[in-house]
Amino acid sequence: MKLVIDETRCKGCNLCVLVCPYRIFKEGTELNDRGIVTPVLDRPERCTNCRLQPLYGRLLCGVCQMICPDQAIAWVDERPFEPHKVEVEF
Ligand code: SF4
Ligand code: SF4
User: Name one Pfam family in it (predicted).
Assistant: First the structure.
């Protein structure tokens, strides 16, 4: 699973920065198209949900999602690896 911030919803309150035990969210530095500084993700693959949600079949930590006032945090499926589409060029 892949952690994403929906930039169309996030208002840059940085509550997620405060609560994540792995410090995956960091305060951003650049304004987006809406004039909001949204957090940036630091190695989001470390997130408990990213790593273990497929194994357990449910959300595990989710503190950031619970505290986000704008429902801007979600996990999306990553496209599975498709070995038959890999082409090696020599
Ligand atoms: S689910 Fe937990 S570990 Fe993952 S980003 Fe949110 S607060 Fe951090
Ligand atoms: S808690 Fe939600 S709205 Fe606030 S900065 Fe994080 S993602 Fe954006």
Answer: Fer4
